[in-house]
Design goal:
- The chain is α/β, with parallel strands linked by helices.
- The protein has three domains: about 260 residues, Zn peptidases (Aminopeptidase); about 220 residues, 3-Layer(bba) Sandwich (Glucose Oxidase, domain 1), CATH 3.50.30.30; about 180 residues, Transferrin receptor-like, dimerisation domain (Transcription Elongation Factor S-II, Chain A), CATH 1.20.930.40.
- It is about 40% helix and about 15% strand.
- The protein has 24 helices and 18 strands.
- The strands form four sheets. It has a seven-stranded mixed β-sheet with strand order 1-11-13-12-14-16-15, with helices on both faces.
- Helix 7 links the parallel strand 6 and strand 7.
- Helix 10 packs across helix 19, helix 21 runs parallel beside helix 24 and helix 23 runs antiparallel to helix 24.
- The protein is globular, with a radius of gyration of 26 Å.
Amino acid sequence: MSVIARVLAAFTLGALLVAAAPSPAGDLRGYTAAGAKAEREWETKFRAIPSPDSLREYMRHLSARPHHVGSPYDKANAEWLLAKFKSFGLDAQIESFDVLFPTPKERVVELVAPTKFVAKLQEPPVPGDPTSSQLAEQLPTYNAYSVDGDVTAPLVYVNYGVPADYERLARLGISVKGAIVIARYFGSWRGIKPKVAAEHGAVGCLIYSDPKDDGYTHGDVYPRGPWRPRDGVQRGSVMDMPVYPGDPLTPGVGATKDAKRLAIGDAQTITKIPVLPISYGDAQPLLAALAGPTAPEEWRGALALTYHVGPGPAKVHLRVKSDWSLKPLYDVIARIPGASAPDEWVIRGNHHDAWVNGAEDPISGQVPLLEEARALGQLLKQGWKPRRTIIYAAWDGEEPALIGSTEWVETHADELAHKAVAYLNTDSNGRGYLSVAGSHSLEQFINDVARDIDDPETRLTVWKRSQLRAIADGRTPEARDSARRRPDLRIGALGSGSDYTPFLQHAGVASLNLGFGGEDGGGIYHSVYDDFKWYSTFSDTSFVYGRALAQTVGTAVMRLAGADVLPYDFTGLAETVGRYVREVEKLLKDKQDSVREQNRQIDEGVFSATNDPREPLLPPAKEEIPPFLNFAPLSNAVDALTRAADRYEKALTKATANGGAALAKPEAQALNATLLQSERALTSADGLPRRPWYRHQIYAPGFYTGYGVKTLPGIREAIEQKNWKEADEQVGRVAHTLGAETDAITRAAEQLEKLAP
């Protein structure tokens, strides 16, 4: 029995009944008592409509053929989705953009010394899996936005290929200058690997999936089990999206037909060196040919060989050549007009394009969106009318670079600045626990939604099941205690990796990313084996978690669209930002302590950074101890933010008294206009250092993590990169941003106080 199962078994029947009990009718944040009662009645009707059978058939159709950007079936799927939205009674249209999407013409990886080996660079069909054999329509295995190149050079193994790995190589006395590096997937987003390799002088990059991370170490491989087989390859973009996502040639503006475009050579986000992904079957002969030092213990994968670092005697020839033409993409946009606040938008999205057939990524997230739209269409016929406009979006071009959503956001930037209430995103979906990350002004809101959704396989709500998992799996006593005692479960912060990025981090729209998972492992990501056969055999086989996702996100959409007053909460935001401030303060202190200790070891000749006495390490040079930074402006800004949030909460509590009649006053429209700007206040028009497209000052993808989030990114990354002048400047900038947020919340509190004097 798992730890989760033991925790579940420990709960008494009475506790389970309490957990499953419905919430009182008048407790919806931002609603009058009468409005909450009506809202809950409509939500109950909504949640009864989504059908696992419908989800299964949608997936069967949408994943029937490869549908990457520019392919015939990508366009056919967009037209099919458009017809579906219209059949549900929604006003829908396709918005098209012309974007740079390279597809491969030539790919070569071969070992030329000390022996000969030519990589297959192909995924074989699997008997019994009909779509895996659609070879003529499948994109070959490649990394999009790799520059063209033809290089022959010594090979060096660089582990995950992140900056810390190159620091380790330097201490081993090994340089990658003039070499081709081979890195394994994981450890960071794939696009970071060629970026860091080029910064260290490498001339080419190979990325492979090691079975220790993604293969037989975890279980049986496909088709016997769900894990990546020997010849499976992870396609994917290596565009430098931490600089900006979207079409590389039109940064900051929509890629419409008449848009002014950069020359390809001027696009900052295309790699500097050629890159290709390979299977662990193709990687094994290359790694086996390496000599040089034995790789550090934590660098060793699960292949049957001794992992050496190199360089030599292995020498590799790598050639990449692509078609760099523009391709059309098709965003399918459906609208339900708001009855009384049509210029306030609640936006719900998931992408429809895939690298190949894409049953899991993205169709498992797209089909719940479609079922939500069908259910809302039925409610419209029964007389339901949302207060605000609801927009359902099926994005194209997410896989290469979040293109469809980014170009749409850039095209509609002025409207979004004044109208966007929130953006709710899904991507892929599986079996297990609800996972949520996003804007912390929506943390309490989404916790409340999760308390009203039943888990398909237990007698619990999805909130209670997630809480029990957080208690069982918490890494620290503090995390476990927080899960037990805190009224709301903490939601994660968003970095990048899906279509919420342009909404949150460029346009400043409060956003959430949701999905179920945790009980459906597998290794078919971005391969030909991500198809209906795999998904219906190894993932959400009964499609009940697809239904649960539709119920969860659809409820959230309805609740946001119907509230009298937008249900943001700022106390959780203030508390979370305070945690981030303490983290960057600790980051600086830890760096100071680390440098002091390192310098002491160097002075005493006892430097050691490895547990392997056979591994000769060169000691690093002594460093100056990082300087003191004045965090007082930041601490003061958090205190002011906390006071403003508390004032707003008290005003809302008072306005909600006596049935909340104050919330229904006409003046609430002006209050909502103020609240709409609260997430925008957390952005800066100048953006982050060296990447102005990213405007949010609280959340951003890391410059060297790609998907992984950096909170307070301007400060945190300046400290990590030892840029002390910039760190000091960023402290002031973030303090100013928090001041703007405090001002917005204070104005909202004043407006609320006038509603309920």
